[in-house]
Amino acid sequence: MPSGLDPLGWIVIGFFAGVIGGWFVPDRERTGCLGTTVLGIVGGLFGGWLWTQVLDQGRAGGFLGALLIASLGTAILLVLIRGLSRR
After folding, report:
1. CA 13 to CA 48: how far, in whole Å?
2. Residue 1 lies in a domain
3. pLDDT of 84 over the 80 cut
4. Domain count, the chain
5. pLDDT tens digits, residue range 18-59?
6. Alpha carbon distance 2, 6 (integer Å)
7. Which of 23-29's residues contact partners 24+ apart within 8 Å by CB, and which partners?
8. Which structural domain range is residue 76 located in?
């Protein structure tokens, strides 16, 4: 997440990332606004970790950069969760 982002920013980006990540990996399961937001925040943390540590990139630049990284992180996280839960 970009530096200087307050908790409200994390919640907003988390909600939108959860929605967008859900579009990438559709399922019948409905989590509601709170579940989508929590999933998006966790996906954003996971995506940010992948972006900075694994891919060795700098921090996200601005709202759109954070949203893109969080959305991709959420989609990857959903694929991992659903793959593990179906076994």
Report:
1. 13
2. no
3. yes
4. 1
5. 888 888 887 766 777 888 888 888 988 888 888 888 777 777
6. 10
7. 24/71, 24/74, 24/75, 24/78, 25/75, 25/78, 25/79, 25/82, 27/78, 27/82
8. 7-85
